[in-house]
Each structure stands twice: as C-alpha cells, then as structure tokens.
Design brief:
139 residues, 4-stranded parallel β-sheet, 6 strands, single chain
C-alpha cells in the first residue's frame, strides 16, 4: 500500500514560499506540499488556525504530514509542535534548507516510505547539509 506523505513548510515571513519556489525550480511541481507564512501581523491564535487548516487540507489526502519549520523555539515551530501533540500523524523537522528539502521531497516522490523511514534514510544529508568553507578548504 502506498504511503502518502504531505509536506507543510512553515516559516517566519516568506522564507517558506521562497524555499518552495526554489525547490520547484530544481525538481518541478510538488504535490501535497503547502506553506504557512507567519507574518508579524498575526497573533499566536491566527498562526495556529492557519497551520491547522493547512494541515487538515494535507491530511485529507495524505497518511502522514511532515512539517518543516525554520527555527527552533520560533512561533512557526511552537505552533507546529502544539499541533503535533494533538494529532497522530505529524512529524516536525526544524531548521530546513534547500538541500534537505530536495533530498526528502525527491525520496518522498519516488518511494512509499513512511516519514520515520524518510528521515532515517536521509540522516547523512541532514547531518551534512551545512558546510563551512574558506579559500583553504572546508572547515
């Protein structure tokens, strides 16, 4: 049986929208991938409601939902973790970048893995997606 994994990108401001745009430039259109952009004008309840609606939209079509948040302890992450505590099929991954998105979305699109398998299978890219370099090489 196919396991569909929905992806919700959440961020402060429009970071998630830019990440989705860049991701789709690299790998093409992404089904079951939605964004929640938390703006300074939103209060916590508005952020919670928007994330809940977006999650419910994905949940209607997917078996599991993987929520990517931009910053540990930021509002998008706090809202995602509270939602995760209320639902059975949510995993939250904090601190995403384009390399991580490309890896996990490509694997999600080509396999029927569950979220835990996707993450386990991608630990190397998750651990090595940050590189610090100078003219002398990698640090």
């Amino acid at each position: 049986m196919e396991n569909k994994v929905g992806i919700l990108l959440a961020s402060h401001g429009q970071y998630c929208l830019g990440a989705k745009d860049s991701l789709e430039m690299i790998i093409g259109p992404c089904d079951h991938l939605l964004c929640v952009s938390i703006t300074p004008q939103m209060n916590n309840e508005e952020a919670r409601q928007q994330m809940k609606r977006t999650y419910e939209s994905l949940h209607q079509q997917c078996d599991e939902v993987l929520i990517f948040t931009d910053l540990l302890c930021g509002t998008p992450n706090n809202v995602a973790v509270r939602l995760m505590m209320d639902e059975e099929d949510i995993t939250v991954l904090t601190g995403y970048n384009l390399a991580i998105l490309v890896e996990l979305v490509n694997r999600r699109n080509t396999t029927a893995m569950k979220v835990c398998e996707l993450i386990e299978d991608s630990k190397e890219i998750l651990a090595s997606s940050l590189r610090i370099m100078n003219k002398r090489g990698e640090m």
